[in-house]
UniProtKB/TrEMBL annotation:
One of its GO terms (biological process) is fatty acid beta-oxidation. InterPro entries: ClpP/crotonase-like_dom_sf, Enoyl-CoA_hyd/isom_CS, Enoyl-CoA_hydra/iso, Enoyl-CoA_hydra_C. GO terms for molecular function: isomerase activity; lyase activity. It comes from uncultured Desulfobacteraceae bacterium. Keywords: Isomerase, Lyase. SUPFAM superfamilies: ClpP/crotonase. This is Enoyl-CoA hydratase/isomerase. Transmembrane segments: none annotated. The keyword Zinc-finger does not apply. Belongs to the enoyl-CoA hydratase/isomerase family.
């Protein structure tokens, strides 16, 4: 899908693997990475071959350290208010795109996932972690607001507002064991088996109907925001009627 400098994308058997590839900086996010991920997600949204996406980080030390404070942060923070808002909007958009692409996203996380790296984990559909994984919304620790890059949307929905509020207001790390206990992650495995586990889950998803995967992800996304059982059932009923009609048409 193109040659990139800060990420690596490989696809085989309907499973795409996106690797954040700046290991010397703990895969910190710079402006080039934002542009490249945005480009890739745009292609995945239209892809007819990629059915599931695995997201991971290169290197042994960490998944993603968040925004690169030595390069990208300087470019953004020193700009005008209009430029800062523009950069912020573009940065945050990649997490929206993660929810828009039809592929379920499986995050395979080792080491630290901080700031924007934490948001990559939150915006994924399934999270598999190692015992060394840890997560924090680091923004408040550097003088910013603790709610950024969709953290105030995703985290309360994933672990409940009580603990989410604590993590966002303190910038404290959520340990791997806490992530499991709170239901943030679905599995904890050793680093040596992390990608194999992610691929096993992806392989089971690939066996399903591509349209079924897409419609299920859409229903989950939409029902995160509904306010009544009636609305949730309406979305599910509509999707199932569409799927049954599609199956009959295929026959």
């Amino acid at each position: 899908m193109g040659d990139y400098e800060t990420i690596v994308y490989r696809e085989e058997g309907g499973v795409g693997v996106l690797t954040l590839n700046r290991p010397k900086t703990l895969n910190a996010i710079n402006l080039e990475m934002i542009e490249e991920i945005e480009d890739l997600f745009g292609k995945l949204e239209k892809s007819e071959t990629a059915r599931v996406l695995i997201l991971t980080g290169a290197g042994e030390k960490g998944f993603c350290a968040g925004l690169d404070m030595k390069t990208a942060a300087g470019e953004i923070f020193e700009g005008s208010p209009a430029l800062i808002y523009q950069c912020q909007s573009r940065f945050s958009r990649i997490y929206y795109m993660m929810r828009v692409i039809p592929q379920p996203v499986i995050a395979a996380i080792h080491g630290a996932a901080a700031g924007g790296g934490f948001s990559f984990a939150m915006a994924s559909d399934v999270r598999i972690i190692t015992p060394q994984a840890k997560f924090n919304a680091a923004y408040i620790n550097i003088g910013l607001g603790g709610a950024d890059l969709a953290s105030s949307y995703f985290l309360p929905r994933l672990i409940g507002s009580g603990r989410a509020n604590e993590f966002l207001l303190t910038g404290d790390f959520m340990t791997a064991q806490e992530a499991m206990d709170l239901g943030f992650a679905s599995r904890m495995v050793e680093k040596e088996t992390l990608m194999d586990t992610a691929r096993e889950i992806a392989a089971r998803m690939v066996e399903k109907s591509p349209l079924g995967l897409k419609m299920t992800k859409e229903a989950i996304n939409q029902n995160l925001g509904v306010t009544s059982l009636e609305q949730a059932l309406h979305i599910e009923n509509r999707n199932q009627a569409f799927m049954i009609t599609a199956m009959k048409t295929e026959k």
